[in-house]
Amino acid sequence: MRMDKVILKSALSTLAAIGVLYVVLIAVLCLVFPQTMMGVTYDMGMTDLSIFFADVSYNRSHEAYYAAFVTEVSISANYDDKTEWYGQTLLDHSGFDSYAATRVGSADGEKVEEYRTYIQGQVCLAKYDLGKQDEALDTAFGYLGGHFYEYNPVVALLVMRADAEMKAEIGERLKSVAVNSSGEQAYLDEMILLATTN
What is the value of pTM for the model shown? Predict the structure, then answer.
């Protein structure tokens, strides 16, 4: 009987030591290789944890890739606060163009701009959903940069979020937007009509 207790105690001690070693190993991996853990946790469906590791990775390296990872995962998970913050961080990043070219699989300026427009729209939608409607609208119009291109952030707000009051305001503000071509003018006219028609 006494021998059984010794064996059991020994086995439990060994299992406990293995458990502690496993926890320490995981902790070391998390601290030393957050970028690896970001991918592992994302693949396992642990969205919040993968965002956490991407956040740690970004704060260590300041690489556009990690800002983009948090932004894109946050968009799909409807995390508006992180979409707003990291989306803007990505847009302001000096490495945005090179990351975007990798992301869309081409250095084609048009495709890079499409990706930029997508992120801009998501930032504005996130602001709107966070209750920052005026800021969302100001930011969307600020992104236009002097020309009214297709599927811009203003259009994203108009089509996907705007209530009657915001539609009216968008319609008024669109009337003073400058355009660079007859194509842009036609698109602008179409959006003004959409904004002002009840």
Answer: 0.83
Domain residues for the domain of 157 are: 144-198
Q: The tokens 């600020």 sit on which residue?
A: 142
Q: State whether 123 and 151 are in the same domain.
A: no
Query: What does the angle CA 175 – CA 184 – CA 75 come to, to the nearest 5 degrees?
Result: 90
Query: Residues 138-142: contacts with CB within 8 Å, 24+ apart?
Result: 141/173, 141/177
10-residue stretch averages of pLDDT, the chain, 198 residues long: 69 80 66 78 92 92 95 96 97 95 85 94 97 95 87 94 89 89 90 88
- In a domain? residue 10: no
Q: Are the CB atoms for 126 and 80 separated by under 8 Å?
A: yes
Whether residue 96 sits in one domain with residue 50? yes
- Contact partners, residue 87, CB within 8 Å, separation at least 6: 71, 74, 75, 119, 120, 122, 123, 126
Q: Amino acid identity, residue 157?
A: L
